[in-house]
Amino acid sequence: MLKYSKALGLVVFVFLFAMCNQKSKSETEKETILKGSLDIAVDETVKQIVDDQVAVFEGTYYNAKITVKPNSEAEVINDLLNQKTKVAITTRDLTAEERARFDKSKINPRVTPFAHDAIAFISNKSNNDTLIALKSVIDFMQGKTDGKIKGLVFDNPNSSTVRYMKELAKVKEIPKSGVFSFKTNNEVIKFVSENEGMIGVIGINWFYQPTPDMTETINKINVLYVKGLNSNEYYSPTQNDLEIGKYPLARDLFIINCQGYSGLGMGFASFIAGDIGQRIVLKSGLLPYKTPGRKLKIRSEIIKDKE
């Protein structure tokens, strides 16, 4: 009888221990704002800055794993609308129609702006003229050629840069003649570096933060100064010109969170919009949405260092 009681007690103990372990494992695997795993759909034109943010976030919060999935803007937005992804980073806010679709699904997207970005025009280094009028580019997209532009080079027909320029030129389709499109910003940069007279259209983040294999190629191109439609001055996509609101091809970056609960998407959005995330944006060459503060220590007297 005693042996039976001991055996029964041992079984109960093992069962309770297993249950506690299972509970502990379940709690460990549960997603919070600082731990768990998350896939983020990212506009390919701004992948570099997102990679930086993810690297620092994961280095700070070891239990968080974020996978960046770059794609064209059209595909990123479609994945959001079809709930194939819950979190995305885009170069524009949601439209009224897109928000209406989320409303029908009883989803309330949280949209957080975190940086000021820009579309840049680039040319071959052999081109001594580093100035371009935005009107000339728009005329070219409308089929009006004056010989000043040999051709335009885009990354992807479904990209945010194409969408931006089509809206600016008020055209539904890009011209079939004189316009080239590839798949990535790196391909645009490489093509322009090898072909004189071509004007590339890229996200400026790819120029400021080139991939290691593109460092030499970057040195073969110029970023052009652009004259806006209602301006007589030329401005470049630098932090200074973005901050004063003079560069005519500026745009904002947004993280859109459709998780619907306090998960890793919320934690990451808070991180990139917070002090550390904004400093990462500043270092990248883009303009932070909120300028990181500086702490100054003011002393009432000068303390001489000991000799």
TrEMBL record:
The keyword Zinc does not apply. This is Phosphate ABC transporter substrate-binding protein, PhoT family. InterPro entries: PBP_domain, Phosphate_ABC_transporter. Residues 1-20 form the signal peptide. Residues 35-274 form the PBP domain. It comes from Flavobacterium nitrogenifigens. Gene3D superfamilies: Periplasmic binding protein-like II. Keywords: Signal. It holds the Pfam family PBP_like_2. It comes from the Bacteria. The keyword Signal applies.
